[in-house]
Structure formats: C-alpha cells, structure tokens
C-alpha cells in the first residue's frame, strides 16, 4: 500500500493518522486503513479505467447503440470525471435523482446518516464504496442510449476467457466424483480460492489462475485460517432437513463463478439439494460481480466452447437451468444496497424469508464478508456468531479470501503471528476463511 504523501489533504479533511480503532466502524477517515487507500488510490483508478474504456470503445458503442451514443459517451465521461474529483475532495454523498427501483431505498438510507458522516472519508467504508458503484450506475442510467450498457462486461468476459485452462483442468478432474465429505470439502475449498480472482482488488487488472487447481487447494491449506468445511458437509448431507435448497450469494464472474457452478453441479448430482439458487447483482458492481447476463453468458461460453469437455459441461448446466435445478433469482436490489446483512430482516423481510427456505446459504467473497460483519473492527478472536449480530436466516457459511482489514474467529495469537511476517497479510487474498454458523 503506497500512500500519496499529502499532509494538506489529511489536515483539510480531518484524517486521523492511525489504524481503525478497535470496535469501530471502518472508514477512510483512518489513514492507515485499507479504506483510506481505497479512496485515495484504488477507486480513483477504477474510475479512470471506465473513462479510458469509454474513449477507447467509442466507435463500437456508437455502432451498437446508435449515433446519439456519441454525445452520451461525452456526458458520461464528464460525469465520471466529476465523480472522481468529488472522491478526491471528500465530497458529500448526495441523494439520487433517477427513478430506478432502488432510488427511494437509497435516499431513505442516505437521509438517515448523521450529516457529519455523509462524505466519502467520514462515512462508513461500506456505505461510501457501495455509494460509488451505485453512483456510476446512475450516471449511465440517466442517458438515453447507454442505460443498459454494462461497462464492466468486457473485463468480466476476458476474465472468463483467461481462465479456460484452469476450467479445463478442473472440469477434467471432476467428471467422476464420489459423494463423500472429502470430495465436498475439496470443492468447497476450490470455490473459496476462486475468490482470489476478483478484479476490483486490482482496480480492473486481470488475474489469470495458473497451476493445477487441486494441487493449489492442498498447498493453500496452510493459508486457510478457519476451516469449517467438515461442519458444512454435516449440515448439507443431513437427510432430516425439510429444505432441499442451497442458496449461493454470488461474488465474481469469470473463474470464481465457474467454481460456483462446479460446486453447485456436485450438490445436485449427489442429491445434496434439489435446487441451487444463484443470487446475483442488479447493477454492475465492484467491477467483476455476477449479474444475470453474466450467468447465462458463462453457460453459453462453456456450451459453445471448442473443447468438448467444456461444451458438455455447459450443455449440462444449461439443462439444469432449464429444469429449474439451477435457478437465477429475480433481481434483488438489497444486494447492491449499502445495508449490512443484520439489517436485512427489517429492511427486506421477503428476502430474509426466502433465504430461510434454504438448508444452507453460501456467502461468497470479501464484500459479502464485510456485509456479514458490518464493516466493523471486531477483535480478531471474537466468535463469528457474535459478529453476525443476529443475522441467521438459515445455516450459513462464508467462503472468503481475505482482502480487507477486518476478521473474526481466529485462534488467539494467529493474527499477531501473521502481522509479524507481513504487515499487509489482510489485503492480498493469499489467506482464506471458511466460517459456518448453524441456525
Ligand atoms: O467481494 P470480493 O470480490 O471478494 O472483493 C471485493 C474487494 O476487492 O473490494 C473491496 C474493497 O474495494 C474489498 O473488500 C475487496 O478486496
């Protein structure tokens, strides 16, 4: 984390020169936090990337959306440049104006924030970062020609294409599997480490999965700091459960989504559930998050692949989707709201009740982890249950590679040991967690 040296900035915006204090909301207010680095460096770079690709793809966009798109591209690039400037100047989190389905919910949320906490550096990190992605979406939605354009789609598709080798190796290794705890735990871990390939952590730079995925899973066991995979197996193989549904709350497209599909295929093939539901994002989100279109694009990518192995897999998964064994859930704006999950029952009771139908809910990735823990600096040994603050619609687990400075449920001394080796160990995605909470 190389930070810009600008004492004036810190003085002007009241930045505190410390880590996030214990038991405090995470915020870019703390100079030594990852949130500060995110707002000073990562997000401005993400926005520059969007502007650059609008300029680069202008002709293609005009060919696709018509000549009026030319002016919309100019306006959009200007609005995103403004957003970047606002972030670099600790601007306010203003109310949204468009008539998108979630505008009222967002505005109600923003209006309830204390006025002194309604700016990028003073708001809770989770709120301010979600706000930025919602704001980008509103800029595109306000145009006549680009309102349905997914400005991250090319990056997501490239990520999938770059993963072909890894996909072939994993597909080959999983055509004949056994229904047992060991195999299930391996696939769960494969799925966990798939979360390393996220584009928002690199501000959009591609990450190519290399090496044999299953060898890597074994090698990475030492980096798995909490491993509740055996308890998750017990939960899912339990024949007494009334429910036969597993929910996956998805994170990234590309290789990670592929590993979600492989885990889901196993769950269906081995009769561990009759349906796997995929919960995807309503708007382009944290660069690489899965939207409904990405799900179908990925199945099509596999089904039309030159490799017979991937083609067979793609066709099988398309059939699962047509038969309702795999289901993409209807658009749900709660996932792209700023709310922590402990507030779901109150804010979006229908979603809470829907998750309660599942025998297991799998939360993927770092941002979902932040929402489970509520972007809060828990003590690193505090129990997962405590940190969920009562959120437990069903049995739930989290598969998260660690890319942000919050954590819980570690064995005493572990965090200190890792900090002694590398003071940035929480930011690299090299370490992972599989945590579980029984309903
Ligand atoms: O949810 P994901 O894809 O695993 O990670 C999202 C992420 O890159 O974005 C956040 C910061 O911008 C971090 O919490 C995390 O590193």
Automatic annotation (TrEMBL):
One of its GO terms (cellular component) is nucleus. Its EC number is 2.1.1.-, 3.1.3.-. The keyword Cell membrane does not apply. InterPro entries: ARMT-1-like_metal-bd_sf, ARMT1, ARMT1-like_metal-bd. Residues 38-417 form the Damage-control phosphatase ARMT1-like metal-binding domain. Its cofactor is Mn(2+); Ni(2+). Keywords: Hydrolase, Manganese, Metal-binding, Methyltransferase, Nickel, Transferase. GO terms for biological process: DNA damage response; intracellular phosphate ion homeostasis; methylation. GO terms for molecular function: metal ion binding; phosphatase activity; protein carboxyl O-methyltransferase activity; pyrophosphatase activity. The keyword Transferase applies. It catalyses: L-glutamyl-[protein] + S-adenosyl-L-methionine = [protein]-L-glutamate 5-O-methyl ester + S-adenosyl-L-homocysteine; beta-D-fructose 1-phosphate + H2O = D-fructose + phosphate; beta-D-fructose 6-phosphate = dihydroxyacetone + D-glyceraldehyde 3-phosphate. Pfam families: ARMT1-like_dom. Subfamily III proteins have a conserved RTxK motif about 40-50 residues from the C-terminus; the threonine may be replaced by serine or cysteine. PANTHER family: DAMAGE-CONTROL PHOSPHATASE ARMT1 (PTHR12260:SF6). Belongs to the damage-control phosphatase family. Sugar phosphate phosphatase III subfamily. Metal-dependent phosphatase that shows phosphatase activity against several substrates, including fructose-1-phosphate and fructose-6-phosphate. Its preference for fructose-1-phosphate, a strong glycating agent that causes DNA damage rather than a canonical yeast metabolite, suggests a damage-control function in hexose phosphate metabolism. Has also been shown to have O-methyltransferase activity that methylates glutamate residues of target proteins to form gamma-glutamyl methyl ester residues. Possibly methylates PCNA, suggesting it is involved in the DNA damage response. This is Sugar phosphate phosphatase. It comes from Drosophila lebanonensis (Fruit fly).
């Amino acid at each position: 984390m190389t930070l810009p040296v600008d004492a004036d900035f810190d003085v002007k915006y009241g930045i505190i020169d410390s880590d996030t204090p214990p038991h405090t909301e995470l915020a870019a207010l703390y100079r030594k936090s990852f949130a500060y680095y995110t707002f000073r460096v990562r997000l401005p770079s993400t926005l520059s990337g969007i502007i650059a690709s609008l300029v680069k793809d202008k002709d293609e966009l005009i060919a696709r959306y018509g000549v009026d798109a030319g002016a919309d591209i100019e306006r959009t690039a200007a609005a995103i440049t403004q957003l970047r400037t606002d972030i670099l100047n600790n601007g306010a989190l203003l109310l949204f104006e468009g008539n998108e389905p979630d505008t009222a919910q967002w505005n109600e949320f923003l209006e309830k924030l204390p006025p002194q906490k309604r700016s990028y550096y003073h708001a809770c990190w989770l709120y301010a970062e979600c706000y930025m992605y919602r704001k980008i979406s509103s800029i595109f939605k306000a145009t006549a020609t680009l309102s349905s354009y997914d400005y991250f789609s090319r990056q997501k598709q490239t990520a999938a294409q770059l993963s072909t080798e890894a996909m072939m190796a994993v597909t080959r290794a999983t055509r004949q599997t056994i229904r047992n705890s060991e195999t299930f735990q391996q696939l769960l871990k494969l799925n966990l480490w798939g979360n390393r390939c996220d584009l928002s952590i690199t501000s959009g730079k591609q990450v190519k999965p290399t090496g044999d995925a299953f060898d890597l899973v074994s090698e990475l066991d030492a980096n798995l700091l909490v491993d509740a995979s055996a308890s998750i197996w017990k939960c899912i193989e339990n024949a007494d459960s009334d429910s036969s549904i597993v929910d996956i709350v998805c994170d990234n497209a590309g290789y990670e989504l592929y590993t979600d599909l492989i885990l889901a295929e196993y769950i269906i093939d081995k009769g561990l559930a009759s349906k796997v539901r995929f919960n995807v994002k309503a708007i382009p989100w944290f660069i690489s998050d899965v939207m409904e279109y990405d799900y179908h694009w990925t199945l099509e990518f596999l089904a039309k692949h030159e490799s017979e192995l991937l083609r067979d897999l793609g066709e099988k998964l398309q059939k699962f989707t047509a038969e309702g064994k795999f289901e993409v859930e209807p658009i749900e704006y709660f996932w792209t709201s700023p709310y922590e999950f402990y507030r779901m029952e109150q804010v979006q009771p229908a979603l809470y009740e829907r998750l309660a139908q599942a025998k297991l809910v799998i939360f993927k990735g770092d941002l979902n982890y932040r929402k489970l823990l509520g972007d809060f600096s828990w003590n690193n040994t505090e129990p997962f249950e405590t940190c969920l603050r009562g959120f437990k619609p069903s049995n739930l687990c989290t598969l998260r590679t660690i890319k942000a400075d919050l954590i819980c449920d570690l064995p005493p001394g572990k965090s200190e040991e890792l900090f002694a080796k590398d003071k940035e160990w929480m930011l690299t995605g090299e370490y992972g967690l599989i945590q579980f909470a029984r309903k």
